[in-house]
Amino acid sequence: MSKGGRAAVARSRSIDHQLDEERERREKEVQTLILGSPGAGKSTFLKQLRLQYGDGFPPAERQTYHDQILQNVATGLVHLIEHMERIGLKFQSPEMKKLATDFKRKHPRISIVTLINKFKEADEKAEKMCPATTKAELTKRLSSLDVYKPDVPSVEDMHTLWADPAIQMCYERRHKFETDRLSASSEYFLLHIGRICCPDYLPSIQDILLIRWPTLGVQEHQFIMDYRLYRMIDVAGQRSLRKKWIHFFDEAAAVVFFVSLAEFDESLEEDPSVMAMQDSLQAFHDVSYNQFLDKTDIILFLNKKDIFATKLKNSSITTCFPDYKGPDTMDSSLQYIQDRFLHNKPATKQMYTHISCAIDVPQMKDIVATTVECVVEINVKRLKHL
Ligand SMILES: Nc1nc2c(ncn2[C@@H]2O[C@H](COP(=O)(O)OP(=O)(O)OP(=O)(O)O)[C@@H](O)[C@H]2O)c(=O)[nH]1
Ligand SMILES: [Mg+2]
């Protein structure tokens, strides 16, 4: 064989070797992307996964959520104080009024738009100082940029505020807030304030599942099953941060896409002129047709069915879908939404759907197990085409 021929054979062997290594790594490592709109339940799903396939949140780990929970309680209280100001509901004493004013100043409710801007600024600064050259570096940076570090609120102040009759009256009227409604998680944490403000408080699993703490970068949870490493990548759902999703597309075996059913009558915080569910439909369509994901199957979660059921009692999905002509029942409305998401799907793609309530541990047990099985199957199918 000529010298050139031998070099070509060596090159070919080296490429084969690299492909084998790559194939071996992909066989051992399964990457799943968790995508979807802000607040749809991506991080909550990841917590359910940790509960079932991870460490199950031992006490030391649960303790790490303490400050986030106190912060959620504070947000709920400030929300009530702001509503009292709006409707002219007065505190009973000047001391209480001062405490409320100081508390609001120390723990302001931060809009998601402000947080995103802070995050983008920090990300651009970090990129300028030390550009990420690999995906691992980018993931590391996106998961470590911590732009939301509010002061931990005083437990005594929260106790005192919560005991005030005017705050209590405002809380009782929470269902009548016409705009800027109290979120389900704020409602939950305010209701449990007595337990949470105890000196020996240890967050329960339910408390951890109810926390609202937007993901601004990337969070990853890994678990090993049958000698395979499963990497579940949870990325920020905010519209203007979605550009980051694309960096993770090429290695994804599967996509789990979350939609909040509760958003059918809501508009986007980032752009109030856009209906949130219409935006989710668009994002889902973009992901389904993305060229880097052409062989990636999608597991669609229509989540927050509990809030959806409550909302449907007084409203209709026509708010978001004026063409809907069916009855305002749960089954019919759900079917319509599901059809809207799955209609027009790429012919080559398999789509699986779950209708879920991600904070419900017993209910999520089967759904999480089915999802993991589905990811395994999707990966087996994918490896055949590698
Ligand atoms: N009632 C109810 N609340 C839910 C459900 N799923 C999630 N939540 C709550 O909704 C809030 C947002 O959930 P997350 O899991 O943080 O949402 P996310 O998709 O990760 O949001 P981003 O990180 O902002 O993109 C949290 O307070 C959760 O406890 C559900 O099915 N029902
Ligand atoms: Mg999140």
Automatic annotation (TrEMBL):
State the Gene Ontology BP annotations: adenylate cyclase-modulating G protein-coupled receptor signaling pathway
Keywords of the record, alphabetical order, are: GTP-binding, Lipoprotein, Magnesium, Metal-binding, Myristate, Nucleotide-binding, Palmitate, Transducer
The residues that cross the membrane are none
Q: Which PROSITE patterns match?
A: G_ALPHA
Q: Which residues are involved in binding Mg(2+)?
A: S43, T215
Quick one: which residues bind GTP?
209-215, 234-238, 303-306, 358
Instruction: Give a Gene Ontology cellular component term annotated to this protein.
Output: cytoplasm
Q: Where is the composition biased (Basic and acidic residues)?
A: 13-26
SUPFAM superfamilies found in the cross-reference section: P-loop containing nucleoside triphosphate hydrolases (SSF52540), Transducin (alpha subunit), insertion domain (SSF47895)
Region annotated Disordered sits at: 1-26
ATP-binding as UniProt keyword: no
Note the superkingdom of the native organism: Eukaryota
MF terms from GO for this chain are: G protein-coupled receptor binding; G-protein beta/gamma-subunit complex binding; GTP binding; GTPase activity; metal ion binding
**Quaternary form?**
G proteins are composed of 3 units; alpha, beta and gamma. The alpha chain contains the guanine nucleotide binding site.
Q: What is this protein called?
A: Uncharacterized protein
Species for this entry: Elysia crispata (lettuce slug)
